[in-house]
């Protein structure tokens, strides 16, 4: 396949530091909402979003839950060693890894690595009247991450307990401040269920339980998938050609109930966040691959360039996957996706996207450009000039497709 070219410089804009929200608002749903529909911009408050929905619409939420994946160990020097857990090592799933007893291996990023002078680092953890030791050792490394083994001498605690006791909320690198106790609640959606993300699906941070109740009571339907957000979501595009950027890989879990909700949707499908949109498009491609007899449960980056996949009928794909589940007598499926959505990609799984305002040179901004074309610049310029708050703790937008 001949390599396509898309100039990465087209997705750079000036984002002043003062436009980046460092803290959330006191009330989640008090954030501003920019509505973009057929070239028209409307300013609203997020709790008014119900006015944009119609009876029978289907909202797609990502119910992944952020783990306290950030940990510090004393280096014996001025700066501590910082560890960010990315995912369990050896293709182990998050549930099993968080239930590990006495030892657990993880792929990690290590900050201040040059300060790590001893083979094993130790720290004491106190819980009530109990005191025990947590240790960590490097067992392998490559150019992208370290494999670390954590060990602890308390048989009553699993690794999930260890993180709850000692881990911190993994705030994004552009939120340059210390983590507070408030972040544990606020850098988490109110509907988070499935543990495994190291970054929040931030479009959902604006929803309150009360707002969700009002949405459901108005006749709007809700369905959920799980995409565990990895640290790769923050990786900027550093190459000249967007298509030479190596897309990060994440895992998506969908259920029979989810597929039936899509097939039986009475009105429009609206995705809550780029993770939900990317997952839904990945579901479309996976279903089309199964229909074509292509083996494996992995949507690869190059699949996003294959016209027979990106122009596939979503409903046919949902039916293919539903048949796959029934044939194999399973209720859900987990697959890997490295899909990159870009301008020119055929988005046909939803009518609108709810999302925050994203970093320059990010693959998330590419999704906005895929929806709006050059008009993404108009939208972002307007948001900057009208005091919208940007990035994870910032304000929201509702962007209609087409």
Describe this protein with a few key phrases:
single chain; alpha/beta; 2 domains; six-stranded antiparallel sheet
Topology (SSEs and partners):
Blueprint: E1 32-37, E2 40-45, E3 58-62, E4 64-66, E5 70-73, E6 81-88, H1 94-98, E7 103-111, E8 120-127, E9 130-141, E10 146-152, H2 159-166, H3 183-186, E11 194-197, H4 209-217, E12 221-227, E13 250-255, H5 256-263, E14 269-272, H6 274-291, E15 298-299, H7 307-310, H8 314-327, E16 332-337, E17 352-356, H9 363-372, H10 375-385, E18 396-400
Parallel strand pairs: 1-18, 3-12, 3-14, 4-11, 14-17, 15-16
Antiparallel strand pairs: 1-2, 5-6, 6-7, 7-10, 8-9, 9-10, 12-13, 13-16, 17-18
Helix pairs in contact: 5-8, 6-8
Could you characterize what this model shows?
This protein is of the alpha/beta class. It has two domains: 8-66 and 185-400, QueA-like (3-Layer(aba) Sandwich); 70-167, no CATH class. It contains ten helices and 18 strands. It has helices at 94-98, 159-166, 183-186, 209-217, 256-263, 274-291, 307-310, 314-327, 363-372, 375-385, and strands at residues 32-37, 40-45, 58-62, 64-66, 70-73, 81-88, 103-111, 120-127, 130-141, 146-152, 194-197, 221-227, 250-255, 269-272, 298-299, 332-337, 352-356, 396-400. The strands form three sheets. It has a ten-stranded mixed β-sheet. The protein has a six-stranded antiparallel β-sheet with strand order 5-6-7-10-9-8. A two-stranded parallel sheet has the order 4-11. The longest helix is centred in the C-terminal third of the chain and has 18 residues, at 274-291. The two termini are 29 Å apart.
């Amino acid at each position: 396949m001949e390599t396509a070219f898309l100039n990465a410089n087209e997705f750079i804009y000036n984002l002043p530091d003062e436009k980046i929200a460092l803290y959330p608002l006191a009330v989640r749903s008090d954030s501003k909402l920019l509505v973009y529909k057929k070239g028209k911009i409307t300013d609203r408050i997020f709790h008014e979003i119900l006015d944009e929905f119609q009876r029978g619409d289907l909202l797609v939420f990502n119910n992944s839950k952020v783990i306290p994946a950030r940990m510090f160990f004393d280096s014996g020097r001025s700066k501590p060693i910082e560890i960010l857990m990315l995912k369990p090592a050896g293709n182990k799933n998050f549930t099993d890894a968080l239930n590990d007893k006495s030892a657990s291996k993880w792929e990690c990023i290590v900050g201040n690595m040059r300060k790590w002078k001893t083979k094993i680092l130790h720290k004491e953890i106190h819980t009530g009247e109990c005191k025990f030791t947590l240790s960590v050792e490097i067992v392998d490394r490559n150019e992208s991450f370290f494999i670390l083994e954590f060990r602890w001498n308390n048989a009553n605690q699993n690794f999930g307990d260890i993180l709850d006791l000692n881990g911190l909320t993994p705030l994004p690198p552009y939120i340059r401040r210390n983590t507070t106790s408030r972040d544990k609640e606020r850098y988490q959606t109110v509907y988070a269920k499935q543990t495994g993300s190291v970054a929040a699906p931030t479009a959902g941070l604006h929803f309150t339980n009360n707002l969700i109740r009002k949405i459901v009571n108005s006749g709007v339907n809700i369905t959920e998938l799980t995409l565990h957000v990895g640290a790769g979501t923050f990786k900027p595009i550093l190459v000249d050609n967007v298509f030479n950027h190596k897309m990060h890989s994440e895992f998506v879990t969908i259920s029979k109930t989810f597929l039936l909700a899509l097939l039986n949707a009475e009105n429009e499908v609206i995705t809550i966040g780029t993770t939900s949109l990317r997952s839904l498009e990945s579901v479309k491609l996976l279903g089309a691959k199964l229909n074509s007899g292509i083996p494996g449960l992995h949507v690869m980056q190059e699949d996003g360039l294959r016209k027979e996949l990106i122009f596939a009928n979503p409903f046919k794909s949902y039916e293919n996957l539903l048949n796959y589940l029934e044939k194999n007598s399973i209720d859900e499926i987990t697959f890997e996706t490295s899909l990159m959505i870009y301008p020119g990609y055929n988005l046909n799984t939803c009518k609108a996207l709810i999302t925050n305002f994203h970093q320059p040179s990010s693959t998330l901004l590419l999704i906005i450009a895929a929806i709006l074309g050059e008009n993404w610049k108009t939208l972002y310029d307007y948001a900057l000039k009208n005091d919208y708050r940007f990035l994870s703790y910032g304000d929201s937008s509702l962007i209609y497709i087409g």
